[in-house]
Specification:
Cytidine Deaminase, domain 2; three-stranded mixed sheet; two-stranded antiparallel ribbon; about 35% helix; about 35% strand; globular; disordered C terminus; binds zinc ion
Length: about 120
Amino acid sequence: MTQQPVTNVHLTSPVARVIITELRTADHTTETGGLLLGHHTHDTVTVHHAGTPGPAAVRTPTYFLRDLAHAQALADEAFASDGNIWVGEWHTHPTGRPIPSARDAVTYRQLLDHTELGGFIEQ
Ligand SMILES: [Zn+2]
């Protein structure tokens, strides 16, 4: 399989359910989010698993740092099940505009160079 630049992103129903459930139940005054796991084939990323913040996540109105151990456990489980890998992240902006912030752009650029699950900060 040859990977090409991503022009399509498919979210599966289980992923939508995880995100919707988190949005319904989360504290809406602070950011929430998690990692996205799936497959990149040709020009399409298919997201099969979405993470939640985890019990040790740091959440403020303008800052989000997910629980690394929680994310790593989900990533290990998803990889073992059918080879799902990290394909991205999701998070909310409860106090800002619903577009990537300047800091998000910096974070994403760093992620393009370093795609292993690390302790990187998302805002
Ligand atoms: Zn953001």
